[in-house]
Every structure is written in C-alpha cells, then in structure tokens.
Amino acid sequence: MNRVHIKTYGCQMNERDSEAVAAMLRARGYRIVADENDCDVLLLNTCSVRDAAEQKAIGKAGYLAVRKKKQPDFVLGILGCMAQNRGAALLDQLPDVDLIVGTQKFHQVPGYLDNLRAAREAGTPIGETIVDIGEEAGSQNTIKDHALEEKQVSAFVSIQQGCNMDCSFCIVPKTRGDERSRPMDEIVAECRALAERGVREITLLGQIVTSYGRRDYAHTDGVTPFVQLLERVHAIDGLARIRFTSPHPRGFKDDLVAAYGRLEKLCGYVHLPMQSGSNRLLRAMNRPYTRERYREIVDALRAVRPDMYFSTDVIVGFPGEAEADFEDTRALFEACDFDMAYIFKYSIRTGTPAATMAEQVAEDVKEQRNQILLDVLQKNSLRRTAKLIGSIEEVLVDGPDKTGARFTGRTRGNRVCIFDAAPRLVGQLVPLRIERASVSTLYGELALRGITDAA
User: Would you state the pLDDT for residue 210?
Assistant: First the structure.
C-alpha cells in the first residue's frame, strides 16, 4: 500500500502544497504515481474559493467511494481548504473517507498514512476516520520540500500563509488562518538550493504575498520586507527569472513599483486582483482601495516598464451590483488593457459577510455580465498578442509540449510559446521570433540559425 496519487484542485498554492506532500511521502518510502487507477492511496487536495470547486471535489470523492467497496484496502483522503472548511461534517456525505487533513497539517499526512498502512497490513480494523484540522504554530514553515522532475525549469516557493484582509466575499481567512510568514533566510536558502538543482525560474507564493514579513522585519530605507526578499532572491546565481502571486493592490508601494525598474530578473508580469471597478462595491467587499488608486498602480507600473503584462481577478454579480456599478467595472477593465483575467460569477460562501447581504443578483444577470467581460478580454488578448507577431521574445524553454513533438516555454510576460527546439535547450533563455498568435499562445521559431540542431 505505498502507491499514492494526489489530485489537486484550485490555485498555485494548492499545487505547491501537493508537491510538498509528495516530496514528504517519497522521503517516507511511498511512490507517487501519475495514474489514479494505479494507486493504493488517493489524496484529493481541495479548494473552497467557490462552492462549485467544493462540489466538484465532493463528486469525485463520491465516485471513488464506489472503488473502495470493490477494493477494501484502497485509502481515500481529503486534504486542504475544503477539509479545513467542512472538517468532520464531510462524513455526512462521504462516510467512507479515511483521512481528512486541513491546511495547517499537510506535514502530518505521511504519519497518518503510515498508521493506516500498518493497520491494513496487520488486518486490524481502521475504526474512525482520521480528522485533523487544528491550527499549528509554525505550520507555514513545513511547506519546504520539493519533488522536482528531471530537468525541471521552474518551481514554486511558499513564503507566506494565511490572510488578514477579511474581504467580505472570501472564505480564505477561515481555510488558511491568520497571516504567517516564513523566515527570510530559510526562503533564500530554499531558492538557492533549487537554483543549484537546475531551476531557472522561481514563483514566490502567498495568500497576500506582498504582506510578507510586515510584522517580522523592519522597513529599511523605505524598502518593505517583501522587496528586501526579492532583492535577496535576485542575487542568487543561476536564477534567471522571478515571479510572485498573489499580491494585493495595497502592497504596491513605491518600493515595489521601483523594483520592476531595477531588478532585471523580476519578470514584467503582474497579477493584480481588481475584483470590482465600483468604489461603492469595493467598500462593500472590504477592499481598501478605490478604482482611481487601482488605475494609478497600473499606470505607475507601465511607466517603469512599458511592456508590462497584467492579469487580474474580477467578480461580477456581487450583492447589490447595479448596472452603474457593473459599468464602472467594465470601463476600468477595458482601460487597464489586461492580457488575461479570471472572471468569476459571485458565489455565496456560507460564513462570509457577503452571504447574508441583501440584493443578491440573479444568475442570468451574472451570466450576462460575465460574458461581457469575457468578450472584452478576448479582444484585448488577441490585440495584445497580435502586436507581438514579427517581434523577438526572450523565452525560457520548459520542455516538450503535450504532444511531445515540439517544445514549450514562456515569455517574460507569461505568454505560453510553442516552437521547435533541441532537448539541450531545456532551461535556456532563447530568442524566439513570433510568427502567429492565438488568444493565449504564441507560435514561432528560434531566431538563431542552427539553435534547433541537436547537440
């Protein structure tokens, strides 16, 4: 009973958590398998940002419960945000689940599986489901192990967990706990070790990544702890690129804006959650900025780097959203000229202030507004990518694409590229002449003669 498959739902933080669990399990002698049909243990690392995400995971777990009836030794576990949010109440719907582990207890998974495996091997009844959703001091420091694949070019590094922002629509403070930062020296050491293993690009992760260390480190000459961390990671030999997600507009002080002009490895791509372009709704959402301030941040970043690329999050149909509010959102959305966006129809999350607000918006109105913004986004993205045709972009070669016939990589602006190359170029920065473009993907050829030849 040592073959484990981990299926991940949700954000990059969840992906990083799953990778850390996989690394811890490998160190304990478990084998991580890619095909869920080949596993003895299946762990669902879940998301709670929207009800649809929870229902998807519950549906999957229900389907897997049928497998447990055929394979009594099969182990099913639920990890992460939904486990934290619902806890033992999940057993009302999913009585056959063996393990429920919350967001501060990922590091306990190997020990719990050891206990389950020992019971199975001894022929001892397992008894009650293991449920652990308690808080644990220092849990943010446990997401540090990496299960790198051969020639892995990029990696996520968790620097901060939890959130103190209390946005009225968001359940993350409940599922991830209060804001907690890792020691800067440990983060830098982790990034350095990754670079020594061949990683060229690192993405720093946190619920509110720009809040990193604000209670733990002093501002130095007007430089926030987060920018201090960026400076130290930037100095690591071997690293070529730095990204981060997910920030909050409040975190874009002058020092962070200026960092884009002086830290060459910091990619010219920003994910800047907008949520709404209506000042009235931003107040109702408990988002501490205005539409005017948001636009100032975008303009300031483009002044430092004219070729800056932007993505964002937007919610349509928040309680009380009138046509005038949505028009403000649409106008700001168009003005900011986003390259990519995650557009969500508001979803009630029980336990959040917005869930009980009056004037819930009808589903058909949400759908209409959602489609309007999607249409704007598609036009923007096509126009932005079309401008790149004929240009030469710096691309970090990740490896073979899904077909295995060509190679894939990303520009500094986070655009996916498809092209012909040689295996020896994986992990290298190469010049790519863009020949055609879709909404989200660029296609081209390497600009140097002979660069695609095999070594």
Answer: 97
Domains annotated on the chain, with CATH: 3-132 (3.40.50.12160), 140-386 (3.80.30.20), 392-446 (2.40.50.140)
pLDDT of residue 126: 62
**DSSP-assigned beta bridge partners for residue 341:** 312
CA distance 290 to 161: 26
Please choose, from the candidates 303, 245, 242, the residue with its C-alpha nearest in 3D space to the C-alpha of residue 273. Answer: 245
Please provide residue 126's backbone torsions phi and psi, each rounded to the nearest 5 degrees: -70, -35
Greatest extent of the chain over all pairs of C-alpha atoms, in Å: 67
Interior/surface letters 395-415, b for 16+ CB within 10 angstroms, e for the rest: bbbbbeeeeeeebbbbbbbbb
Q: Tally Cβ neighbours within 10 Å of residue 36.
A: 13
Phi, psi values for residue 90, rounded to 5°: -60, -25
With a cut of 50, which residues of the chain have pLDDT below it?
453-455
Q: How far apart are the C-alpha atoms of 7 and 61, rounded to whole Å?
A: 11
Q: Are residues 159 and 216 in contact, defined by beta-carbon separation less than 8 angstroms?
A: no
Which pLDDT score, from 0 to 100, does residue 109 have?
A: 97
Integer Cα distance of 157 and 299 in angstroms: 29
The residues, ordered by sequence, that sit 6+ positions from 90 with a Cβ below 8 Å of its Cβ are: 58, 78, 82, 83, 97, 100
Burial 376-389 (b: 16+ CB within 10 A, else e): bbeebbeebbeebe
Going by their DSSP bridges, the two strands 99-101 and 130-132 should be labelled as parallel
At 193, list the tokens: 């070790």
Cα separations in angstroms, 202 against 137, 266, 267, 287, 350:
26, 10, 10, 28, 35
Closest to 345 in 3D by CA, of 374, 315, 380, 381: 315
Q: Distance between CA 370 and CA 368 in Å, rounded?
A: 5
In 177-329 the beta strands, taken as DSSP E runs, fall at 180-181, 201-205, 241-245, 269-271, 309-316
The pLDDT, as a whole number, for residue 125 is: 63
What local confidence, expressed as pLDDT, does residue 222 receive? 87
Q: With residue 155 as reference, give the H or E element that holds it.
A: strand 154-158
